[in-house]
Prior knowledge:
The structure holds two protein chains of two kinds.
Chain A: H1 3-8, H2 11-20, H3 25-40, H4 77-80, E1 92-96, E2 99-104, H5 107-111, E3 115-118, H6 119-125, H7 127-133, H8 145-153, E4 156-162, E5 172-178, E6 187-193, E7 198-207, E8 214-224, E9 229-236, E10 242-252, E11 257-264, E12 270-278, E13 284-293, E14 298-307, E15 313-322, E16 327-336, E17 344-353, E18 359-368, E19 374-383, H9 386-393, H10 399-415, H11 421-435
Parallel strand pairs in A: 1-5, 4-6, 5-7, 6-8, 7-9, 8-10, 9-11, 10-12, 11-13, 12-14, 13-15, 14-16, 15-17, 16-18, 17-19
Antiparallel strand pairs in A: 1-2, 3-4
Helix pairs in contact in A: 2-3, 3-8, 6-7, 9-10
Chain B: E1 5-15, E2 18-29, E3 33-37, H1 44-52, E4 57-66, E5 69-70, H2 76-81, E6 84-87, E7 94-98, H3 99-109, H4 119-132, E8 143-144, H5 150-164, E9 168-172, H6 180-192, E10 199-203, E11 217-222, E12 225-230, H7 233-241, H8 244-250
Amino acid sequence: MSVELVDKYSVDYITAFSKARQEPQWMTDLRVAAQQKSESIAMPKPDKTNITRWDFNTFQHQANETERVSSLVDLPDHIKKFVDLSKQQHNLLLLKNQTNVHQALAPDLSDQGVIFTDIFTALAEHSELVKKYYMTEGVQVDEHKLTAVHAALMNGGAFVYVPKNVVIDEPLQAIFWQDDAELALFNHVIIVAEDNSEVTYVENYLTSHQETKTVANVIAEVFAKDNASISFGSVDHFAHGTTTYINRRGIGQRDAKIEWALGQMNDGDTISENVTHLLGDQSVCYAKAVSVGRGDQTQNFTAKIVNHGKHSDGIILQHGVMKDSATAIFHGIGKIEHGGTKANAEQESRVLMLSKHARGDANPILLIDEDDVTAGHAASVGRVDPVQLYYLMSRGISKQEAERLIIHGFLAPVVNEIPITSVREQLTDVIEGKVY
Amino acid sequence: MSGSTLEIKDLHVEIEGKEILKGVNLTVKGGEFHAIMGPNGTGKSTLASAIMGHPKYEVTKGQILMDGEDVLEMEVDERAQAGLFLAMQYPSEISGVTTSDFLRSSINAHREEGDEIPLMKFIKEMDAAMDYLEMDKNMAQRYLNEGFSGGEKKRNEILQLMLLKPAIGILDEIDSGLDIDALKVVSKGINKLRSEAFGCLIITHYQRLLNYVTPDYVHVMMQGRVVKSGGPELVERLESEGYDWIKQELGIEDETVGIDA
């Protein structure tokens, strides 16, 4: 933390915050240790983006009084539209200003031992389970200053646990709604899918404001055990005033499958990294992400898959649209470790530029320490193809509508992967709002 | 309903500074089928692209009129709204946009806002046209032209022609790369449109298509101009004798305009 932050969020403050939530001692200790480390370790240095002037210091750590939500019907429209109210049963967790205001899980799932709750409830009710996965094998506390600050100040999140052999058909949906403009989200999500289990999880980061300065520091740790399958979808939509760090980490064991479909729609400066370690043989990861940059925002995206296991298969797809004077870089990193024979690392990064002043770059990297592998990459940065426009317009479609079709088509590989219809439609809406 | 009239007067067109069309004159009226023939590189496809407004082609002189309206002043979408349609030789592939969504957007572009085609009616019309063209119904849900075979792309162009029902259709080498069965199907689609309300300009390199779609008028292009016009009997003579007799008649040595046009 910066000197001011260390003073403001002292060991005493953090201990009191933890005790007020009746957290287990291990968590209090982890927070305090992280606070102490945070003073000395350096900020992350995302490749090709200078973040030294980014404001990670202006925020409130706790919300003002948060009104409860008595019924989903009473939610404001911009939040409600993400929930499919026509459904009888939701598997839904709604955090407003990091307070759990609504939680629902199909009874047959809880009967089978599925856990889907906010991180504080999980700490209270399943302390040992959370302890096993919380910043242990996935993200480390001391990776850099932002992970340490996150560990010290974590103020919300979700915990998903799917026991062995349990297959969940209906997606789990978590909505993190930042209604208090100054409140920082130090949000921590853990998903554990035990052997042979399957789960689909979709999270939405939503705000009710635009310009107020604050911070989002989000970590998700996703564990797919042997032959487990996790499909993870997101719509990130933090406001222009929010400086954002997002770190989503996956670990796949033997025959596991992790699929990411990330809609990266923040309006403020953002570092977002999505790293998956395919530890087990035959494990598979599809990391798909789309983003739209507008205004003056600067963004740095990393999609990385590390193949450790034999015959492991990693496929990265990133598509970005840049308008106004937005800047973004897309790093795609495929890494095959020694011993990962017959592994496959593929990636595609494409950037579509809609304005002269926008800047976009695709940075494909393959790092291979094994001989018997396959790998490939494709990267491009370009404008809307005038011949495609001509073709669509020759059927009477207006230029604006033709551009719209081409842009939606360009982002479709990820949008179509979002597993909840209402969220998919909302992502389309968010894209529409950002592009036009 | 009587048809529209497309008039092309003394049309000169350049691509990247090189003049391809050097004064084309042609009039197509509703109810008429015109064929434009000629060896490769004589400007046939350039004429089609210039009429529709391809961004690479620059009209340097002459006029294109649709029912007296200046087509050259129109944007590409306005040309389509005015009743022009070009079945392209190389249709673009548009990833992420389904053929069905594209077709519906195209149909709605020709209708007033608030009067969009009802979904069921659209599906019925599309299915009927696809059946007529013996197309695989799955194509509607595939991304537009992406991964389509040459034959599928050509059928998809004729499908659009049938659904959009333009006043004047221009078919740019719709027969190239088609096997005989596909050629028959595509011809069937074109012939179905024959009416007083529909005029057609068929650009082809081969006589084969014209065995199935009989033109009322036949024009031969060389060196960026129409050098010979006649009736359907001209097709037969070209089939048996080739183009050399025209070159001799007109004293042309090199019929091309110098680049692949």
